[in-house]
Design brief:
With 195 residues, this protein is of the alpha/beta class. Helices cover 37% and strands 21% of the residues. It contains 7 helices and 7 strands, in the order βαβββααββαβααα. The protein has a 7-stranded mixed beta sheet with strand order 2-3-4-1-5-7-6, with helices on both faces. A hairpin with a 2-residue loop joins strand 2 (39-41) and strand 3 (44-51). The longest helix has 22 residues, at 153-174. It is globular.
Length: 195
């Protein structure tokens, strides 16, 4: 059993915002593997199915980002999952350019309140994660306004390609090939003007 959780905020007003990158990737995984996400339990919208023979639960916590850990802790407790081996969290990262991924096996919250909440709730920093680049906030912008805003068309296109890469990375992580996934996907995406 593997829990794959994407972080975001519930509600139509937050759909496809930068902060909901995790929800968008979960939707991409669900679409590829025909997993219906609609069951409300453990303070999340959940769906279960199989990826490459591995039973998975896809989860989109409905607690709001800053208390995502409440939902993740309930999921781990209910499914008796080992977070160090059977949890993958997908979320936005402003330190990465749109189109970039960063896969990690463990680490601090790095200023991300959703991850801070998860670490506090499950009492470990050791869990696998895929960070989705959403770009740095422009000078003078409020951080909340930036992450709760939406991509422009060019960045959205880069993000959607990165989402497909994240689906592939998640498949590799499920197979125990996290190092391979890191080698494959932890690369810098150059803006079009630099190519």
């Amino acid at each position: 059993m593997f829990i794959i959780a994407g972080l975001g905020n519930p509600g139509h007003q937050y759909e496809h915002t930068r902060h909901n990158a995790g929800f968008d990737v979960i939707d991409a995984i669900a679409e590829k593997y025909h997993i219906r996400i609609g069951e409300k339990k453990h303070k999340a919208l959940c769906g279960s199915g199989f990826i490459g023979g591995e039973k998975v639960v896809l989860a989109k916590p409905q607690t709001y980002m800053n208390v995502s850990g409440e939902s993740i802790a309930e999921l781990i407790s209910y499914y008796k999952a080992d977070p160090e081996e059977e949890l993958l969290v997908i979320y936005d990262d402003i330190s990465l350019a749109p189109g970039s991924l960063r896969i990690r096996k463990k680490g601090s919250a790095g200023g991300h309140n959703g991850i801070k909440s998860i670490i506090a709730s499950i009492q470990t920093q050791v869990f696998q994660r895929i960070k989705m680049g959403v770009g740095e906030k422009p000078a003078g912008w409020d951080l909340a306004d930036y992450v709760l805003g939406r991509f422009d068309a060019a960045d959205r296109s880069l993000f959607e390609q990165a989402s497909l890469d994240a689906v592939c990375a998640a498949e590799m992580i499920l197979r125990g090939e996290t190092d391979h996934a890191m080698n494959e996907f932890n690369r810098k995406v150059q803006p079009p003007s630099e190519k």
